[in-house]
Amino acid sequence: xxxxxxxxxxxxxxxxxxxxxxxxxxxxxxxxxxxxxxxxxxxxxxxxxxxxxxxxxxxxxxxxxxxxxxxxxxxxxxxxxxxxxxxxxxxxxxxxxxxxxxxxxxxxxxxxxxxxxxxxxxxxxxxxxxxxxxxxxxxxxxxxxxxxxxxxxxxxxxxxxxxxxxxxxxxxxxxxxxxxxxxxxxxxxxxxxxxxxxxxxxxxxxxxxxxxxxxxxxxxxxxxxxxxxxxxxxxxxxxxxxxxxxxxx
Length: 249
Ligand SMILES: Nc1nc2c(ncn2[C@@H]2O[C@H](COP(=O)(O)OP(=O)(O)OP(=O)(O)O)[C@@H](O)[C@H]2O)c(=O)[nH]1
Ligand SMILES: [Mg+2]
Fold this sequence. Notes:
Elements: E1 4-10, H1 17-27, E2 32-37, H2 44-51, E3 56-60, H3 67-80, E4 85-88, H4 100-106, E5 112-116, E6 124-125, H5 129-146, E7 158-161, H6 162-167, H7 179-190, E8 195-199, E9 202-203, H8 214-223, H9 240-244
Parallel strand pairs: 1-2, 1-4, 2-3, 5-8, 6-9
Antiparallel strand pairs: 4-7, 5-7
The structure holds guanosine-5'-triphosphate and magnesium ion (MG).
């Protein structure tokens, strides 16, 4: 059985995290869950701490350091714990656990599977028009700036083989907010990894507050043009584990 770890970053998600973990456990009893909490003032970290067991773990960080750095810390921990497959998803119930089954099926022939909101038209429920326009044009802009032909470059629901996170040098990923997903996808693509999109329906959060800010949008808009000047390939050799997982699972 391949070890699959689901990395979930949290900041003030006390009204969502319990439901999400329960849903994940009900559907996938074998799944390992790793929450990365930045000392949420609402006590999210403490809630997960109480649920800790062999399958549920929490990485507590002292300060809010941003989504990108939370994911990178989670990925590093997942790799060090021997994950073969790493899933990333938001805690706010926008990403439905039910899609993980299809992702795990698709990852057998790919290195990265992206949950896509823009594959068959637009599949987003309950967003304000302004948010939809920002996301849609943001994606079009990012596709233009990077030349990467992925329909949903900014989505946060993904499934990756260990190999995908080992062939890219995670230390070179510097974007923190909205642009983190774009930079990761750019690095995957430039390193020649096999990427596929899976259509998902995305639901606007109903509880808790969005952490997206104007600064994040601006950061992404500027940085996206500079990705092409970076070399994302890792210089060290892949671990034997990564080599082993190369073929069909
Ligand atoms: N650990 C950590 N998690 C964060 C941080 N910022 C956001 N998150 C989490 O990352 C996930 C995505 O953040 P959201 O605020 O939902 O951002 P979004 O999905 O772009 O925007 P909305 O869906 O409108 O809320 C959620 O699970 C957040 O709790 C952070 O600085 N540190
Ligand atoms: Mg969200």
